[in-house]
Design goal:
The protein is 52% helix and 10% strand. By secondary structure, it is of the alpha+beta class. A hairpin with a 5-residue loop joins β5 and β6.
Length: 246
């Protein structure tokens, strides 16, 4: 039955695409199955099955997965591969036995009854299910909001990270602050280039000493990322003495 499925799908691809080579047909089917059913399948996979089922290369050991068989059956306008087997077995007298078809039919009927029971349960407990879903959604949102977030200093800026003691030392981890991640940067100011003060006269730059005693400059107030000491606002004295050297 798998052989029949692939014979039919390559025949349909030939009519739809106008292509005749196995590579051309495989490219077409790979695109159509991915595009129409959101089922990603490489063209090389179709080439292998063309060689196995159309050219009769029995040495190719690859067996198609059930989800691929279902996707191809849907492309052929069947519900799934089981439906394809049922619809094609009687008229073609394939090797699938009548007992197999009966088993498939019984399974389909069982699935149908199960779905009916599920729908009945949902209808009887609709209010409970809706309320539970809302509570679960609120719990997830609340948990996400209240989860502590973290950041680490990377060279000249902060980056938001997940808590990971295998990757980061505990001394590197700092509680996440959005304004620090977005605005806190270490820079090298230039005389006549950097804007040291805002239009209202408030500082636009802060400074502090590194662990080696070197002055370093930052674009946001806060703590020095390495020493943890509070940064100081820029002054004309610091600008003249250490930046502009006047």
């Amino acid at each position: 039955m798998k052989k029949l499925l692939f014979e039919k799908v390559f025949e349909k691809a030939k009519k739809a695409s106008g292509k005749t080579s196995k590579n051309g047909l495989s490219d077409f089917l790979s695109f159509k199955i991915t595009e129409d059913f959101n089922f990603k399948i490489a063209n090389r996979t179709f080439v292998r099955y063309y060689e196995k089922y159309i050219e009769g290369n029995g040495n190719i050991g690859y067996e198609p997965r059930t989800d691929l068989l279902d996707a191809i059956a849907r492309y052929l306008e069947y519900k799934d591969f089981e439906n394809f087997v049922i619809m094609n077995n009687t008229e073609l007298g394939d090797t699938v036995s009548k007992s197999s078809i009966k088993t498939i039919g019984e399974k389909t009927e069982t699935d149908k009854k199960f779905r009916e029971r599920v729908l009945i349960f949902i209808n009887k407990n609709r209010v409970t299910i809706v309320v539970s879903s809302i509570l679960l959604f609120l719990f997830i949102i609340t948990y996400s909001i209240n989860q502590p977030k973290w950041m680490v200093w990377k060279e000249d800026h902060y980056e938001k990270i997940s808590f990971n003691l295998k990757k980061y030392d505990v001394s590197q981890l700092k509680l996440y602050k959005a304004e620090w991640v977005n605005d806190f940067k270490q820079i090298i100011p230039g005389c006549g280039v950097s804007k040291f003060f805002k239009d209202d006269g408030s500082p636009n730059l802060w400074y502090g000493k590194s662990s080696e005693g070197k002055l370093e400059y930052f674009t946001h107030y806060g703590l020095h990322p390495e020493t943890g000491k509070t940064l100081k606002p820029i002054t004309n004295y610091i600008i003249d003495k250490y930046i502009c050297n006047r």
